[in-house]
Amino acid sequence: NDPMISALRGPSLSYFANPFDDQGSICHRYEADTLILIEDGIITHAGAYDPALVPHGIVPDHYPDGLILPGFIDAHVHYPQMPLIAAHGRQLLEWLDHYVFPTEARYHDIDFARLIARRFLREELRAGVTTPITYCTVHPESVDAYFEEAARLGLRTGAGKVLMDRNAPENLRDTARTGYDQSRRLAARWHGQDRLFYVVTPRFAPTSTEEQLDLAGTLLREGDGLYMQTHLAENQAELAWVQRLFPASRDYLDVYDRFGLVGPRCLFGHAIHLNEREWARLAEAGATIVHCPTSNLFLGSGLFNLKRALVSANPVRTALGSDIGAGTSVSPFATLGEAYKIAQLRGEVLTAHQAFYLATLGSARAISQDDHIGSIEPGKEADLVVLDPRATPLLAERQSHAETLEDQLFIMMTLGDDRLVRATYVAGRKRHDRDNAGDLS
Ligand code: GUN
Ligand code: ZN
Predict the structure, then answer these.
(1) What are the transmembrane regions (predicted)?
(2) By C-alpha distance, which of 242, 416, 412 is closest to 329?
(3) Contacts of 268 (CB under 8 A, 6+ apart)
């Protein structure tokens, strides 16, 4: 079998160091005319364009006015909630009861799950996201539907069946035992297939019994390289509820900790209302927070302390998420733009380089996938997005006054949406092309 070879050419931007650590030092590499060579989905060369390096018979996809970046990571999202994005008027617990549970109840139907999974992944690719990490629903069918579609597209992505054995409608509950058995079967079927990984997914402490959390911890320990995802300290009413349900726990994080659910590859959505003990414990354990700015503002949950997470003597690994359907956009530009505004409301600063680092290499490191993705360099998988910094009349006008690369990036994260995404490549294959609406996937 001949290797599949392809090439891209154009300006590129990629990070190699953490701009939250090395404030003031250069953490990125910008190359005005880059040649990226790809063999069987892996980057084999990334450097200044040199026609002598282009393999015979290969014509690079050329984007002279574009900006090539590593594909974006969306580390906390609920694909089944896409049909309820932008539902009006409630905070977390009421919003779950009123909008989320009735919608999630539809996913016993695998055809519906397939339809939404397909639309969801198309939307993520349109937004330039190449690695989503998603919750499914309590139904195993919702996981099969998602992974089938993700495998077809060749994505690096994670997902898991929601575990929920109390405080939810009857038709959305499993039991500690069935939840464990079904998750184990799904992990055996999907984890490590192609680029897929399984994520043990207790929804959040209030919807699981101690027995279920205990079995989730068992599953995580038994599995080889499985992930865990859940929600943590998102909303004040939720905090009070957790305290009532788990009176023996020191705080919210301790509920998960007592069942072995706090460690590397454990992803905690939100983490807005933490005490210093919880911050220190997350740091010590190597656990990961996923900051979900548009969701936190939409549900009125609070202002995440990104500075405590990342600019600190004991930083906590932090990734970014859209948290659709509480989030209001799958676009990383919206996520970054709202992260900036949350920092503003806290009297803090998020620079454009910090923001774009977080959406790429920073999130890849936070989810322990930076061996594979997050930057443009030989050996990494060729998940790439091509931006069009002048995609709209307003963007073009504003970019004409930009003086630095950092200005250009900040304009994109403030004004950008899916129109900015000219093309998205998954393992070297173009899976989205803005200007050729014909569906590539
Ligand atoms: N907490 C428990 N479930 C959910 C959910 O589906 N979305 C959000 N934002 N928070 C949650
Ligand atoms: Zn969520």
Answers:
(1) none
(2) 416
(3) 229, 230, 231, 232, 253, 256, 282, 287, 288, 289, 290
pTM above 0.90, yes or no: yes
CATH number assigned to the domain covering 72-366: 3.20.20.140
Residue 166, judged by CB atoms within 10 A of its CB (0-12, 13-18, 19+), counts as middle
Q: 326 CB less than 6 Å from ligand 1? A: yes
Fold match flag (5-70+374-433 vs 72-366) = no
Domain ranges of the chain: 5-70+374-433, 72-366
Q: What is the pLDDT of residue 342?
A: 98
User: Which residue matches tokens 């977390």?
Assistant: 92
Predicted local confidence at residue 253, as pLDDT: 98
pLDDT number for residue 2: 74
Q: Whose CA is nearest to atom 3 of ligand 1?
A: 203
Closest CA to 298 of 338, 271, 331: 338
Distance 96 CA to ligand 1 centre (A): 7
How many Å lie between the centroid of ligand 2 and the Cα of residue 438? 32
| Positions of the chain with pLDDT under 70 | 1, 22, 438-441
ipTM for the predicted complex comes to: 0.99
Q: Say how far apart CA 202 and CA 242 lie, in whole Å.
A: 14
What whole-number distance in Å separates Cα of residue 156 and Cα of residue 172?
28
How far apart are the CA of 326 and the centre of ligand 1, in A? 8
Tokens at 407, concatenated: 């200005």
Identify the CATH number of the domain defined by range 5-70+374-433.
2.30.40.10
Tokens 């969306």 sit on residue: 74
